[in-house]
Amino acid sequence: MSPALGDYAGEQLQQAAEKILFGKYEVGKLLGYGAFAKVYHGWDIEAETSVAIKAINKQRIVNGGLAGHVKREISAMRRLRHPNIVRLQEVLANQKKIYFVLEFAKGGELFSKVAKSRFSEDLSRRYFQQLISAIGYCHSRGVYHRDLKPENLLLDEHWNLKVTDFGLSAVTEQAHSDALLHTMCGTPAYVAPEILAKKGYDGAKVDIWSCGIILYVLNAGYLPFNDPNLMVMYRKIYKGEFRVPKWTSPELKRFLLRLLDTNPQTRITVEEIIKDPWFKIGYKDASFSSDHFETKDGDDVGRSGNLKNLNAFDIISFSSGYNLSGLFDEQDSGEMFLSTVSPEEIIERVADAAEEESLTVATRRKWCVKVDGGQYGNFTLTLEVKRLTDELVVVEVRWRECESEPGPEMWKDRLRPQLCNLIYQPDGSVAGK
């Protein structure tokens, strides 16, 4: 075979491999793309269902300083299980790309529907009710979207609304000591006036403002604040200068004025929205509860760092095909695995294995052991155990990635083979074999 034919055959094999992602998903046609990611239609081979696959170029994210956006999106979406929020099923990664496997929204963007024609007041209310149900739930889980707009609202096959794209989201832990967020973000026409003031803002109040803009667009078919001159538009937003279309009912007009109140202190809250007479018409869950759409196993991380309960995404997060710990860190590497063995026994087994390999156990505690290179050189390998459930723990192994240090090889080739029977595999197989 000539070199040219060999190169061509290699390219064909690579393309074929990329079409079947990790042996689990068949990658189909391109649905859309941005500066750092492409979204494809995918097929879950085992479940025989459609998915959306968001492929993110890892190097471009790192070079662009946007690793935090990806991490925030994962951090936010792993907390959320709601029928009006696109579900993140799995995150996979290789050396070049990160893949989000998402629920597939067959109906496309809500924006494409409203761009053709404004909605009736009843239809606008229906979608706004679903939006508030989703956003109220997000807030109850400490997640603030911060980039709500029709382009980030999708429709499923039954034409129900699905909120997506949490790349600019924030979580409660990001708030400053004043309990306010300070990052300038959002799409210009949907940004709240307090963000423009750059004095800190309440993430929940900012989302409510954007919801008000969306409701206005659904009812009117155009934006309340719009101008080719960006500074003029910002001035209108800051002053709250907009007109309600003449076909708007008095009840909806009053409601919009409460949503688009430039003062975040007096702007309507989710709890008040639920009780509003215009909003309540036909609403099936007027007594909204943050637990209404919550799965029983969806509790989040407690202050101790241990998960109270383990939801489906957490299981995926710590399974062998998925490890976010070193996605963007160019200096340190490592891996995670699950185990049903007690932390004490794991630490004891690791310490014994290290001593057999003539390594030095520098630190040994109930939940952590640190191993130094001893006669093999200057390196440190740390193993930490965290409890996930009564039955499961996650074990995180970290080392310094350096060609002159034997950390990775020492773990992978010398220590891990001695511990393979500690590693839990959901499919029943034995890790390390």
Automatic annotation (TrEMBL):
GO MF term list: ATP binding; protein serine/threonine kinase activity
EC primary class: transferase
Keyword line: ATP-binding, Kinase, Manganese, Nucleotide-binding, Serine/threonine-protein kinase, Transferase
Secretion signal, residue range per the UniProt entry: none
InterPro entries in the record: Kinase-like_dom_sf, NAF/FISL_domain, NAF_dom, Prot_kinase_dom, Protein_kinase_ATP_BS, Ser/Thr_kinase_AS
Tagged with keyword Kinase: yes
Positions of the NAF domain: 305-329
Amino acids binding ATP: 54
Entry cofactors: Mn(2+)
Record keyword 4Fe-4S present: no
EC number: 2.7.11.1
One GO BP: signal transduction
Domain Protein kinase: 25-279
Catalytic activity: L-seryl-[protein] + ATP = O-phospho-L-seryl-[protein] + ADP + H(+); L-threonyl-[protein] + ATP = O-phospho-L-threonyl-[protein] + ADP + H(+)
SUPFAM superfamilies per record: Protein kinase-like (PK-like) (SSF56112)
Record-stated family: Belongs to the protein kinase superfamily. CAMK Ser/Thr protein kinase family. SNF1 subfamily.
Function recorded in the entry: CIPK serine-threonine protein kinases interact with CBL proteins. Binding of a CBL protein to the regulatory NAF domain of CIPK protein lead to the activation of the kinase in a calcium-dependent manner.
UniProt name for this protein: non-specific serine/threonine protein kinase
Naturally occurring in which organism (per UniProt): Lactuca sativa (Garden lettuce)
